[in-house]
Amino acid sequence: MRSFCLFFILCVFKLSAQEILPGAYQTQQYFPLLKDKNVAIFANHTSTINHTHLVDSFLNSGIKVVKIFAPEHGFRGNADAGKKINNEVDEKTQLPIISLYGKKTQPSAKDLDEVDILVFDIQDVGVRFYTFISSLQYFIEAAIENNKPLIILDRPNPNGFYIDGPVLESNYKSFVGMQTVPIVYGMTIGEYAKMLIGEKWLSWKNIRKIDKRISLGELLGFEQEKNNFSLTVISCKNYDHNSKYVLPIPPSPNLPNMQSVYWYPSTCLFEGTIMSEGRGTDYPFCIFGHPSFPKDLFSFKPISKSGATHPKFMNQTCYGWNVYNEDVKATLAELNQQLQISYLLKAYKLFENKNDFFIKPKSELDTDYFFNKLVGSNQLKNQLQQQKTEHEIRKSWQPNLNKFKKLRKKYLLYKDFD
To answer: CA torsion, points 379, 381, 384, 389, in degrees to nearest 10?
Structure first.
């Protein structure tokens, strides 16, 4: 508890010292756009201005909020990863909360019937398989389909200072990766939204009410006589892609500290394997291993916790690695602005029955392996099985990474890191 409280104290101090302010803080830029409108907001527990939730700020300012939409982990941000979230009524405001995680990923026409304008405000972590950018895409498509203006309140990307990892191949698209971007893509939510639109990556299948003879470019050129949709991004203040932004609020139950946030892009790949990725410990994604590994390695025992009620190997002793370091600067130095795969290589080498290392889908199709969905292709799985070196693996990423880096530049709202 003491370290958890200290985390928040340090976060608040860091935010103040850096004077990095998310888009939500720039109320003078978007409150006038919401005046006398029925507002629906996509939000969770990270959608705050200082210590006040954005919904409360809206209501306190006389803005009429009529509906809340919630992502994975729910409006309060405490549900397990992957857990189905039901619709509910917010106890404090009595507003309806509609879950957009599970079978339903997009607001329906009925959901938006009484809505005049949409607001999207979520703290992302800049990793392709962190599902908030998938929710963002569906939300934009719903805004277009139902002729609703959309305001995105941008927030800094805590992993926005580098780009790395395999680029997703189109036949491996899923809710944990919908677009051909690398695992770490170095963009804020607002920048990513611009890219979705500019690259025409939005799905016409989901935009059923738009005349398909109108090009997406024309549509998003805001021809108001044809469609009421418009996109407004409220930018962050004093942020650029060199910033090491410390999150004031943990973005989800299993990212409780900045060390977990920084290691998450690398060690979340263990979710597609038989190994524990550290859920059910105090340092998820910084602790990982398996019961069969040598007993002279670091030992830990996952237990049931809020946000991880049924972790892998619950109440069993596992052996592996602990990369958690109290010094965040030391964590950043070890990661060295790269996706770290060295522990993945070590784990695969140590695991005796290699046929069982990757969690097998019932279909046994390459495209259905969760590991491949996280990676975005079957290439890394094959490379591990072929015992390729880390150098060989990293080299194979470069051609597609170079293409993406060039594409990304077109949509940046902030000074880049190079």
So the answer is: 30
Say what the alpha-carbon torsion angle 87, 63, 151, 94 is, to the nearest 10 degrees: -10
CB atoms within 10 A of CB 377: 20
pLDDT tens readout for residues 36-52? 999 999 999 999 999 89
- Indicate the pTM of the whole model: 0.90
Helix axes 390-408, 189-198, angle to 10 degrees: 70
Q: Are 3 and 286 in contact (CB under 8 A)?
A: no
| pLDDT at position 306 over 90 | no
Q: Which two tokens stand for residue 131?
A: 């599902």
Contact 150, 97 (CB under 8 A): no
Rounded Cα distance between 277 and 274, Å, is: 9
Rounded to a whole number, what is the distance in angstroms from the first to the last CA of the chain?
A: 39
Distance CA(67)–CA(75), nearest Å, equals 12
> pLDDT tens digits, residue range 52-101?
999 999 999 999 999 999 987 667 644 445 455 667 888 888 999 999 98
Dig out the tokens for 325 from the structure. 């370091």
Q: Is the pLDDT of residue 242 over 80?
A: yes
Number of other CB atoms surrounding residue 54 within 10 Å: 20
The rounded distance, in Å, linking the Cα atoms of 253 and 12 is 19
- Sorted by where each starts, the structural domains of the chain and their CATH numbers stand as 2-234 (3.40.50.12170), 258-387 (no CATH)
